[in-house]
Description:
By secondary structure, the protein is α+β, with helices and mostly antiparallel strands. It has 2 domains: 9-45, no CATH class; 51-171, Alpha-Beta Complex (Nucleoside Triphosphate Pyrophosphohydrolase). The protein has 3 helices and 9 strands; from the N terminus they run H-E-E-E-E-E-E-H-E-E-E-H. It has helices spanning 2-5, 90-102, 161-171, and strands spanning 23-26, 35-38, 44-45, 51-59, 62-68, 81-83, 105-115, 123-133, 142-148. Strands 4, 5, 6, 7, 8 and 9 form a 6-stranded mixed beta sheet that branches. Strands 1-2-3 form a 3-stranded antiparallel beta sheet, with no helix packed on it. The chain is elongated.
Amino acid sequence: xxxxxxxxxxxxxxxxxxxxxxxxxxxxxxxxxxxxxxxxxxxxxxxxxxxxxxxxxxxxxxxxxxxxxxxxxxxxxxxxxxxxxxxxxxxxxxxxxxxxxxxxxxxxxxxxxxxxxxxxxxxxxxxxxxxxxxxxxxxxxxxxxxxxxxxxxxxxxxxxxxxxxxxxxxxxxxxxxxxxxxxxxxxxxxx
Length: 191
């Protein structure tokens, strides 16, 4: 969980992907953060943020939350979602992750928000959605899932600040529809 639960760690990378020489941490300009710089070719290795797509899904007036099947995540609740693959449309990732984690088909209907936090690598994009079909079922990575009335959300057991902030924005009606969300799903996504 290094990528989602802690500060940026330059020590995860030791060698230049271009020439294989050792990477060093240097501040290139006073106003910028430290960067990884190759001791050989002097190329800079930029640590791009990971993008996460999550969904707030309300079913019969209750919000779907889940717990992951990981030792350090079994006691905390979060929104269904996960990492966006390289080259994948963010909206596709949101729909795909819902299918993988809770076996539901959904239609995205709004953007709840984009959340990022100083010193934390991921950028979390949260959508709201309507249920298209299915009954919530635990997917391969899901330990448990439940539907919570807004008044009974376990605020003290939410996994991440982004989960809390997205739920608050959603419940306060602060979602937006910057453009119609029309997602054309790739063939073969669903069985």
